Amino acid sequence: MMKEEVRYGGRTFVPSIPRDEIHEAVIRLADQLNRDYAGKDPIFLVMLNGAFMFASDLVKEVEFDCVVSFMKMSSYAGTCSTGRVSELIGLDVDVRDRDVIIVEDIVESGLTMHEVVDQLKKIGAKTVEICAFVHKPMKLIYHDVKPKYIGLNIKDSFIIGYGLDIDGYARNLPEVYELANG
Ligand code: PRP
Predict the structure, then answer these.
(1) pLDDT tens, residue by residue, 25-77
(2) What is the largest CA-CA distance in the chain?
């Protein structure tokens, strides 16, 4: 049962995606993956931190052999004037000539996925597809990385819960809440 509202840092959030809708989305995505990846032995790469809860539910429904591993993007300002520098960290599996499925909690502008896909291809992944729990189509700028597998398309609201955070909090909520009047 969802709470009527939750509060973090003085802001109020109201119910957005209940547990049964999350479950339906996960099952639908797993069905698609089970059709597309049977016999292919892919690698799931889970983007930390936000995707941990979605990934945990998703991979339990997968029926093909697969490797599950984790990675993170670190962003920091460059020492020269190039601005943002991003690096893939924590990757501990060899993706060369392998089918890779990136598991993301949310794709908004697509910048994170644009950089991750680029780096995975550079190090020799055979195929790279994105499986996102939620996608904000209105916010997508990098159209080359529109996720092939999308749980739910949502409008441009600020959401938390089911892995998504506000200043590190609210990731543990089992359902998704959105900013009230947001
Ligand atoms: C969030 C989310 C995606 C990214 C989406 O990560 O998990 O990786 O932002 O935004 P984009 O499509 O505009 O790049 P965040 O940096 O908040 O890290 P987290 O997963 O640790 O919360």
Answers:
(1) 999 999 999 999 999 999 999 999 999 999 999 999 999 999 999 999 886 65
(2) 51
- CA dist 96 and 140 (Å) reads 28
Which atom of ligand 1 is the closest one to the Cα of 140?
12
By the 8 A CB rule, do 158 and 178 touch?
A: yes
**Active-site residue flag, 87:** no
Q: How confident is the model at residue 87 (pLDDT cuts 50, 70, 90)?
A: confident
The residue nearest atom 5 of ligand 1, judged by CA position, is 107
* Protein residues with CB under 6 Å of any ligand 1 atom: 47, 49-50, 104-112, 165
For the chain, the residue count is 182
- CB-based contact 156:139 (threshold 8 Å): yes
Whether the pTM exceeds 0.85: the reply is: yes
Q: What is the pLDDT of residues 13-32, one digit of tens each?
A: 999 999 999 999 999 999 99
Pair of tokens at residue 39: 């016999």
Residue of 108, 115, 129, 175 with catalytic role? 108
Q: Which residues contact 12 (CB under 8 A, 6 or more apart)?
A: 5, 6, 179, 180
Let me know how many helices (H) and strands (E) the chain has, helices first: 3, 10
3-state helix, strand, coil in the chain (%, to 5): 25, 35, 40
